[in-house]
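User: Modeling request: complex.
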Amino acid sequence: MSMLSLERVTKKYRVGAFGGRELTAVRDATFTVKPGEVVSLIGESGSGKTTIGRMVLRLASVSGGNIMFDGTDVSRLKGRRLAGYYKRVQGVFQDPFSTYNPIFKADRVLHTIRPTFFPDVNAAEWRKRIDTALESVRLDPRQVLDKYPHQLSGGQLQRMLIARALLLDIKLLVADEIISMLDASTRIDVLNLLADLKARGLGILFITHDLSLGHYISDRAVILRSGTVVEMGSTDKVFGNPRHPYTRTLLSSVPQMHRKWTRADIARTIDGRCAIHDGGDCASDSELVAVDDDHLVGCAAQK
Ligand SMILES: Nc1ncnc2c1ncn2[C@@H]1O[C@H](COP(=O)(O)OP(=O)(O)OP(=O)(O)O)[C@@H](O)[C@H]1O
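Assistant: Request completed. Predicted assembly structure:
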């Protein structure tokens, strides 16, 4: 059974002077994440990836559709049930430095969750759990505890945030561009760590603009273009036999690892052939069509 399930999720923001205009950041997004599955959410800058992650984490409201976690509508959770949700679902974001307050020691992020989530666990037991969580993200407690953020590397801070998520015994991690800012060797370490966590049954929504990273780690890929899912399915199929011209454009630019996608890249995809209406009229269908088992593609005219 799917653990996380998005059903036609839409997000509209009010923008412009006095909020007079509406911007649809995400339109009808539908996909799932199962336990032990890594799903990559891939798209150019501004395609709505972070907005989806924020809605899953309840940091942004949903304008339409439903986000279900283990059969419960996430947007209806309140009070203790919402706290229970955050015990199972946590996010880690791009810039680890911005998550830490420079005036406090970094391990404060590990200590402060005890009173909120585990008031019955005593200090000695909590300290043991911290050591175990740090060791499972391959950090040596003696090297990282009692240090200020500026005394630790970006990779160590990022791992400490993952350890924080593990202390909560989460089932789903929303990882939003967590390795883009790390150097190449640390990036591989953190990817390997995510692979370990997945092997232990953690579901991961891995948000990235970088297809090569998405390919490396994920079981399934969801390709977002301007807020709309244009292609999704098993990573091997989406990457091995991309059917949407936008996915093809993204893939053809893979060697430029850290480049962010621009409007011009999107415009170029419109010249490509549509996998659904090959040679015929593109009708801007909003439904994705199955082209293979676990491989869905949208009409190339979709905006
Ligand atoms: N709070 C907000 N108010 C208004 N518009 C917003 C807000 N947050 C995001 N947007 C807009 O929604 C769209 C999607 O943004 P989002 O940050 O989700 O994209 P992204 O794919 O994560 O991009 P990036 O890779 O650059 O982080 C963009 O057009 C963005 O400008």
